[in-house]
Design a protein that fits this description.
14% strand, eight-stranded parallel β-barrel, 277 residues, alpha/beta, globular
């Protein structure tokens, strides 16, 4: 079962990596096997969230943002499958904060009680784009609910990672007390179901740096991780970190779906090359 950590302990573990000149790596896991392998590979954080379950079912991650299932019911079930597969790596939970019928504090407390060491805001309203996200905000179902989640967790001294699509969202997450801000530049490109078009590396990294600056103006100690868009493999992730004030990378599809796709296709092709006597 995953070990439980305090907020300070998680922060100290991440800062130890940064001070040693190593990037922080947050690995998004949809199943227990990939969480176990990520830990063996040295991941610093394992994030468990509903969007990951779809990609590991062979469906598009965007299914998680359509009204076909309940994100929080998904992640509660995933906890029972993934937390037992992890030993020492801190695990954080993605909570969907937008459901007006959700007892957010009660659900947060329940997730911490089962073994999580932190929380992040996932799903996130920003994925819908500015126009629809603004309508969600007006209806009381938007980004402000995500900020409220992070602020509530911070008040409880729980480790927090807040996703932000732009500098203004980053600023608000930092004000809410986020220990980490995830600079999210869009759906990850590549693989069988990734985005076909994305920003260039330079454009995406410029946005990352703007997010870094906005968050650090509020809290100079906040850590920034890059994610999404053209940041789809170690070399592009390294570019995003080397050319910004980010201290690490959050792997989602790039750490789980795409490597699985490549590995299974390659080994299957190899087996099919066997010769019959």
């Amino acid at each position: 079962m995953a070990k439980k950590y305090t907020r300070r302990q998680v922060r100290d573990r991440l800062l130890e990596q940064v001070e040693a000149g190593k990037p922080v790596l947050m690995f998004g896991a949809g199943i227990g096997l990939t969480a176990k392998c990520a830990e063996l590979g040295g991941a610093d954080l394992i994030a468990v969230y509903s969007t990951a379950i779809y990609r590991m079912k062979g469906q598009h991650t965007l299914m998680a943002f359509l009204p076909y299932s309940n994100a929080n019911e998904h992640v509660a079930k995933m906890a029972t499958e993934i937390l037992p597969a992890v030993k020492e790596t801190p695990c954080i939970v993605g909570i969907g904060a937008h459901d007006p019928s959700l007892d957010m504090e009660g659900f947060l407390d329940r997730m911490m009680a089962v073994g999580f060491s932190g929380v992040t805001n996932e799903p996130f309203a920003g994925i819908y784009g500015p126009a629809f996200a603004a309508q969600l905000e007006q209806a009381g179902l938007g980004f402000s609910r995500e900020v409220d989640l992070i602020a509530m967790a911070h008040e409880k001294d729980i480790f927090t990672s807040g996703w932000a699509f732009n500098p203004e969202e980053a600023r608000r997450m930092a004000e809410a007390g986020a220990d980490v801000v995830g600079a999210l530049v869009g759906v990850t490109a590549g693989g069988l179901s990734g985005a076909e078009k994305s920003q260039t590396l330079a454009e995406a990294t410029e946005l990352v740096q703007a997010i870094c600056q906005a968050a650090k103006e509020v809290n100079p100690e906040v850590m920034i991780l890059t994610h999404g868009g053209p940041f789809k493999d170690p070399s592009s992730a390294e570019y995003s970190v080397a050319n910004s004030d980010a201290v690490g990378y959050a792997a989602g599809s790039s750490g789980e779906r795409m490597p699985t796709e490549k590995a299974v296709i390659a080994v299957t092709e190899s087996y099919k090359k066997m010769k019959l006597i």
